[in-house]
Design a protein that fits this description.
Length: 124
């Protein structure tokens, strides 16, 4: 067989290879978004997708977590631009509000799609 024919047969079909790689990545647990994947951070983005904004105390109560734990995880989400944090005062009382950004919404959608693909692959 000629070298050219062998090379053509070995070359992957561009679109098919991309599709297989994307599917393989979606079913790879190691490829989960580590920024979201965690009880508190997933809880934060899940709560914020349901509400326009939540205060620190509202999130703390919903997630049943400590002040320090919530602060650390919220800061990590802010660093990734998934959550916007606004600090203000209500009279003399400090107030911290959290909002999910468009980047955070997209990341959550990707994460959920990844989880759905993992669940589907396990059920097959």
């Amino acid at each position: 067989m000629a070298e050219g024919a062998r090379a053509r047969r070995k070359a992957p079909i561009k679109g098919l290879t991309m599709s297989i790689n994307v599917q393989a990545e979606k079913t790879n647990p190691a490829a989960l978004d580590r920024i979201i994947h965690g009880r508190v951070r997933l809880g934060i983005v899940s709560a914020l997708v349901m509400e326009e904004s939540l205060t620190f105390n509202e999130l703390k109560e919903r997630l049943d977590t400590s002040d320090g734990n919530l602060s650390v995880h919220a800061r990590r989400l802010e660093e990734a631009s998934y959550v916007e944090i606004r600090k203000s005062f209500d009279g003399r009382i400090p107030r911290t509000d959290y909002r999910l950004t468009q980047t955070g919404r997209q990341a959550l959608q990707r994460y959920l799609g990844h989880m759905e693909a993992l669940i589907e692959s396990v059920r097959e």
